[in-house]
Amino acid sequence: MRLLTTQDGLPRISWGAVIAGVILSLIAYLIMSVLGTAIDASLLAPVSQPNPGRDFGFGSGVWVIITTALAVFVGSYFAGRVARARES
């Protein structure tokens, strides 16, 4: 793989692809967060459990880690695929 550079020797960056990747990453994070909140809220049963917040906190923490990793992967993958390679 060849690194494309400018005349000054600096690597080229496709800012449009970077911005699109960030926007897509934020959208994926928002959708996954809303989904996780809905799932956790539906599993919460304060009447039948003496301390429902204990399991809720652990599940939410795991979901935040998974959601963040997945959103970053989706955004960076999209930015890498959309970036155009222009040869000088």
Q: What does the secondary structure layout of this molecule look like, with pairings?
A:
Elements: H1 15-43, H2 53-82
Helix pairs in contact: 1-2
Mean pLDDT: 82
Total number of helices: 2
Uncertain segments are none
The total count of strands amounts to 0
Q: How does the major sheet shape up? A: none
Structural class: mainly alpha
Separation of the first and last Cα atoms: 16 Å
- Compute the gyration radius: what is it? 20 Å
Strand content is under 5%
Overall spatial form = rod-shaped
Helix content: 55-70%
How many domains, as an integer?
A: 1
Query: H/E series, N to C?
Result: HH
Q: How would you describe this structure in keywords?
A:
mainly alpha, single chain, 2 helices, 88 residues
Nutshell version of this structure?
The protein has 88 residues and is mostly helical. The protein has two helices and no strands. The chain is rod-shaped.
Structure explained in plain terms:
The structure is a single chain. By secondary structure, the protein is mostly helical. It has one domain. It has helices at residues 15-43, 53-82. Helix 1 packs antiparallel against helix 2.
